[in-house]
Specification:
This protein is an alpha+beta fold. The chain contains 18 helices and 25 strands. Among the domains are: 229 residues, no CATH class; 64 residues, no CATH class; 154 residues, no CATH class. The protein is 27% helix and 26% strand. The N terminus is likely disordered.
């Protein structure tokens, strides 16, 4: 230990000497790691119990991301943070975390969670209070249910920035045994180019809706009605570009065009800039001295690491790599956990008319010794003729369509005669292959549910594939009394809320210093956060507008029914039945009927619900499915199935203990005793089950402290036994 302390003191002194550079010099990697580590430790209250520590910088075109890792035996704790120490992700791994999460019960060992979902949410919110900025707020979504045997609960939400919603998501996972956050990640303003725009707006919701309405388009087509008997006419939304209204200017902007420009920019990983943040040597020395011995050892691994420009000099010295016309892009660093060696991965880009060429060089981060390199460039099209970059295809789209039609007339002539080409294309365009869809047309309107599809090779006109779906028995509604397309679009637009919030907007990158690293990484467009208006999420799913009534056509979705009861007021079992119902354990329909005699089917439904199954007793297939579960779990055999059989207390307990694996033990002879008042009258075959039930705390006896094996069981007794088992 004395040697370790001396080594730590020596390291602190070395850091102090090493950081005593002029104030204008770039801050060394080890000094930056010291500063970031201290900031993260303070935010998360990280103690000094860890025996290993590593810190690795990833220099991106948007700034530095640090990956900090602590380890102590089988415990690992890793954090990703910005250069300013803002926490972006966290991952806690321990050997005890054998089960990440259980959605519902499981086949064995059912228990109630150590805390409720609401209690776990409080721990998640307390964690967010530590890591969110002052102008950020997160509200978790309502998704997620209480689940039996859960060891963790997860929460998600979006960051509200400056009082406006944003696309930045947040995820947190809470361990129920102690409330620790074991996993966290978030979107951040540092993921975007430039600073977010202000929250002010120069327009109104009404004006934004007027502008957004002009971007909507609908077509009139036949679709099958909900009964599937008749084809009716409906206005259906056409796929159009996405638009938003810029809050600052009030102008309508084509978001799809901007996104396409960004999409064409090849997304590179690990973009970054130089190690260029300055830190005073005295501050770094003081900070280093306050780190633990383990953390000092981790920091020491980056002593002497070359910054990006120095690495670039080492690489460019190798003229054979042909990087003279390439621009330096990014640098990422990795510490080998076994050897402690640090490697760097440096990227380069060359912009040409054909596209972007890329190279990636990996080298020793301290010596500059080359380790490996790979790269690629844009694919080149084979020219059709000199000075032309058109793909070499022998057929135009029209010529390919002629081939398709000639084929279909021979194959499905009668059906094909009822169709017209449904998909749009440039007749004179050329491509390697073509796909045509011919849809049924009735009364002048398409019915795409009836269609023929065919693929044609663009080189030789051969048929590459074909298929059809055609119901010749469909009846078409008449085309009289239709509303106008404008009326349909008005109804469609009104179904959307218009919302003001922050949006991911691709912006053109100018040549300013702010965007220099992004441009060097090969980008001319990148996402920024800007406030704007857009059509939001509707209250339901609508498929279109009825062409005769003008009403929105709502697509109904069956909601999952939850367990609840309205007939338990004043009953002794109310609290435990309601607690089970929180986890959807029990009977559907709103009635517990607690004192009703327990049938075999009632009991199977209860036991299966604890394992995540739902059952409608009126559906034979649903009941059969639950009995298959009961057979697998050994609650009973196929020969014992009697759905309406009223169970005795002894049968109820025996079924349960058999299903939980206690049957072989319960059937041992001559080893059991129990303290029920009627113990002397319990049949020998039931004595083992009675003793186990008492020992496990499943039953306490009736009002006379009797086991009452032959008395009919009631529903609340079955629920109480299951509740006690899970509480035990």
């Amino acid at each position: 230990m004395k040697l370790r302390k001396l080594a730590a003191a020596f390291m602190a002194g070395a850091l102090s000497l090493g950081l005593a550079a002029p104030a204008f010099a770039a801050e060394a990697a080890d000094a930056r790691l010291t500063r970031v580590t201290l900031a993260v430790k303070e935010t998360l209250d990280i103690g000094d119990e860890y025996t290993e520590f590593y810190g690795e910088p990833d220099e991106t075109a948007l700034g530095t991301r640090w990956v900090l890792s602590w380890k102590n035996g089988e415990q690992e704790f890793s954090v990703t943070a910005t250069d300013a120490g803002k926490i972006l992700s966290l991952n806690r791994r321990e050997n005890a975390d054998k089960v990440e999460s259980i959605s519902a019960g499981g086949d064995r060992g059912l228990t109630f969670p150590a805390m409720s979902r609401d209690e776990a949410a409080e721990y998640a919110r307390a964690f967010l209070d530590k890591v969110l900025a002052d102008n950020e707020k997160v509200t978790f979504s309502d998704e997620g249910e209480e689940t039996l045997s859960a060891t963790e609960y997860s929460f998600q939400g979006n960051v509200e920035l400056n009082g406006l919603p944003s696309p930045m998501t947040v995820y947190a996972r809470v361990r129920l045994s102690d409330g620790a956050v074991t996993r966290f990640w978030r979107g951040d303003v540092s993921d975007y180019a430039g600073a977010p725009g202000g929250a002010e707006t120069s327009t109104t919701d009404e004006r934004a809706r007027e502008l957004l309405r002009t971007t909507l388009d609908m077509r009139l087509e036949y679709v099958q009605d909900e009964k599937g008997e008749t084809a009716v006419l409906r206005y259906l939304p056409n796929n159009t570009d996405d638009f938003y209204v810029d809050a600052a200017t009030g102008e309508l902007v084509n978001l799809t065009e901007l996104q396409n420009k960004l999409r064409r920019e090849y997304a590179v990983s690990g973009e970054g800039g130089a190690l260029n943040v300055t830190m005073k040597s005295e501050e770094a020395a003081d900070a280093a001295a306050s780190l633990t011995e383990t953390e000092l050892e981790g920091v020491a691994k980056l002593v002497g690491v070359l910054d990006k420009e120095a690495l670039d000099g080492k690489i460019r010295a190798w003229k054979e790599l042909g990087l003279d016309n390439y621009t330096l892009g990014t640098a990422g660093y990795t510490v080998d956990r076994e050897t402690g060696e640090v490697t760097a991965r440096v990227s380069y880009a060359k912009n040409t008319e054909e596209g972007i060429y890329r190279r990636y060089v990996t080298l020793d981060a301290k010596t500059g010794e080359l380790i490996r390199m790979h790269g690629y460039g844009p694919g080149k099209l084979a020219p059709l003729e000199e000075d032309s970059w058109e793909y070499k295809a022998l057929l135009t789209a029209q010529a390919a369509q002629d081939k398709a039609e000639a084929f279909l007339k021979l194959l499905w002539g009668d059906l094909f005669a009822e169709t017209e080409r449904y998909n749009e294309m440039d007749p004179q365009g050329k491509a390697a292959d073509y796909s045509f869809t011919f849809a049924h047309k009735a009364n002048g309107y398409f019915f795409p549910a009836n269609s023929i599809t065919v693929q044609v090779d663009g080189a030789d006109g051969s048929i590459m594939g074909f298929s059809k779906r055609f119901d010749e028995t469909v009846v078409f509604d008449d085309a009289q009394g239709l509303i106008s397309a404008d009326a349909a679009i008005d109804a469609w637009c009104q179904s959307y809320p218009v919302e003001l919030g922050y949006m991911e907007i691709p912006v053109a990158l100018d040549m300013s210093k702010e965007f220099e690293l992004l441009r060097n990484a090969g980008y001319s467009y990148y996402n920024a956060l800007k406030p704007g208006y857009a059509l939001g999420e509707r209250d339901a799913w609508y498929s279109g507008v009825d062409a005769k009534t003008g009403e929105l056509v709502k697509t109904e979705s069956a909601e999952r029914e939850n367990v609840f009861y309205d007939d338990l007021e004043g009953h002794w079992a109310q609290a435990l039945l309601d607690e089970l119902a929180r986890y959807n354990v029990g009977w559907l329909g709103g009635k517990a009927e607690p004192d009703k005699e327990l049938t075999q089917l009632d009991y199977i439904i209860l036991l299966a619900s604890a394992n995540g199954y739902r059952c409608d007793p009126a559906e034979e297939k649903s009941v059969d499915f639950l009995y298959e579960f009961a057979y697998r779990r050994n609650f009973l055999t196929e020969a014992e199935r009697q759905e309406d059989k009223e169970l005795t207390r002894g049968e109820m307990i025996k079924m349960f203990l058999n299903g939980e694996g206690y049957g072989p033990v319960a059937q041992l002879k001559g080893i059991f005793r129990c303290d029920f008042a009627d113990a002397q009258t319990i049949p020998e075959a039931d004595l083992g089950y009675a003793a186990l039930a008492q020992g496990l705390g499943l039953v306490n006896g009736d009002s006379q402290s009797s086991y009452a094996s032959a008395r009919p069981a009631v529903r609340c007794e079955a629920a109480a036994m299951l509740w006690r088992y899970m509480k035990g």
